[in-house]
Amino acid sequence: MMLTMLPELVIRNSKMKVPVIQGGMGIGLSSYSLAGAVAREGGMGVLSSAGLDRIISNRHGRKFNHRQAAAQDVVDAKKIANGGIIGMNIMVAVINSYEDSVLGSMDGGVDAIISGAGLPMSLPEIVKLHPRADEVALIPIVSSGRAAEVIFKRWSRSGRLPDALVVEGPLAGGHIAWRELEQATDPANHLENLLKEVLDVCKTWNLDIPVVAAGGVYTHEDILHFLSLGCRGVQMGTRFLATHESGANSDYKKLLVDCVESDIELSHKPGSPCGMLFRVLKQSPFYLEAQEFARAPKCNKGYLLNKGNCAAKLENDKAFCICNGLLASINLEPNEKKLYTVGQMAHRINKILSVKELMGELTIPNFKAKINLSEKSLEETNKEFLQ
User: Fold this and answer.
1) Which pick of 28, 156, 280, 364 has the fewest CB atoms within 10 Å?
2) Where are the domains of the chain?
3) How do residues 122-166 score in pLDDT, each as one tens digit?
4) CATH topology of domain 9-241
5) What is the spatial distance between Cα 137 and Cα 14, in angstroms, rounded to a whole number?
């Protein structure tokens, strides 16, 4: 039993000893080994459905479709989790495989489905198609009170409201909710302000569900801070990216340890094909090539679409093909350069830890005194990000 001063987190039928959800990071960064290890240590380990057909086919040496791949990834993670809680992050923007990923995850025995990169309006209706509909927690990711209100109204027609909400601020890694830099750097969009909006909407609906803070959460003290604001848990991605168990390759992990704050950038022109701002390490070879418009337009995966199309397929002045770059970063696209995505707090990482070590640091007071960590606070990082 892990010593902790943090409260348990209960979401629908799932009880976590530690109120920490490991963020779902695609493509392949939230590996089954990472999610299983986090779940085994008392948090929620979260997989990512993006690109799973290729990842699972490569892992098991035979062809898997999207639904089969999602099921198998959950099964693989559950073998490590030792009875712990496993979730699946399914991006709304990955529209061609969205329904199959939801149903496949449920086939595999997933405990929770977390869905963002767009508003998951159809999620409750898809879940109804599966015999495990009542067993699985549904957790939308939102970045405003308005988004929460829209989801509550739409989902109420299906007779199923969210079991929890993840509120993601502008310091998160990968895709964030905003499309313009001015929006992402607006002080009104500090995570604390977004949380207040969403908590107020929950009160208006008289809905007592866990609200989970995400984006820039780094330390045990950060977790306590957000719990004091009314959250019941936090979601953390980049910190788990910098573990031995994550799917990132050795070059990726070395860059995480070596990077400084000025190395982290929100890509926008060119940016992600789905139109959302996308946080990357500037040194990523794929991103450097995209900045020079040196890569010929190409999209041969079709994972990340905007209104059914990939903006990187026909032109490269507005968007670049992130799917191939992310697959290269887990060594599954040998003919492509690598793309590395991170959260804004990545510059604080100075060593790669095991999941067990990291969970100890996050849950045990003063554990961080045993290792050399930057003392820059989340508040200070927010101020610098706005400058």
Assistant:
1) 156
2) 9-241, 250-344
3) 999 999 999 999 999 999 999 999 999 999 999 999 999 999 999
4) TIM Barrel (3.20.20)
5) 8
